[in-house]
């Protein structure tokens, strides 16, 4: 049975508890650069990426996500507008 979001294990590194690795999860959030600090903060996008990783773990009956990594990349969209991509990945785990 999947853990609820509030009790899920989240780690930016390795964990000590015995566990198995289920799969790698990926998530991405795009924010227009002009909207940063105008009602949208970088921490909002980071939180959203983590929530997407948690949701994937929950769908796979995982207990959490370890080795979470979030990269922040500035680029332009197809219309030439500067955007910031928050790209995350992590390993979904299930405790033994």
Summarize the helices and strands and which ones pair or pack:
Blueprint lengths: L8 E2 L8 E14 L9 H18 L4 E13 L5 E14 L1
Parallel strand pairs: 1-3
Antiparallel strand pairs: 2-4, 3-4
Can you walk through the features of this model?
This protein is of the alpha+beta class and 96 residues long. Helices cover 19% and strands 45% of the residues. It is built from one helix and four strands. It has a four-stranded mixed sheet with strand order 1-3-4-2, covered by helices on one side. The longest helix is centred in the middle third of the chain and has 18 residues, at 42-59.
What is this structure, in a nutshell?
The chain has 96 residues and is of the alpha+beta class.
Model regions low in confidence, pLDDT < 50 over at least 5 residues = none
- Report the helical percentage: 10-25%
**CATH topology description:** Translation Initiation Factor IF3
- Shape descriptor reads elongated
Structural class: alpha+beta
For the largest sheet, list the strands in their spatial order. 1-3-4-2
Assigned CATH class: Alpha Beta
How many helical elements? 1
List keywords for this structure.
96 residues; four-stranded mixed beta sheet; 4 strands; 19% helix; ribonucleoprotein; 50S ribosomal protein L19; ribosomal protein
């Amino acid at each position: 049975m999947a853990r609820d979001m509030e009790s899920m294990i989240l780690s930016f590194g390795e964990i000590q508890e015995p566990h198995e690795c289920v799969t790698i999860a990926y998530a991405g959030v795009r924010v227009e650069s002009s909207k940063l600090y105008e009602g949208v903060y970088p921490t909002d996008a980071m939180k959203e990426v983590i929530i997407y990783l948690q949701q994937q773990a929950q769908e796979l009956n995982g207990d959490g996500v370890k080795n979470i990594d979030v990269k922040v990349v500035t680029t332009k969209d197809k219309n030439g507008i500067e955007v910031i991509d928050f790209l995350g990945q992590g390993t979904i785990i299930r405790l033994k």
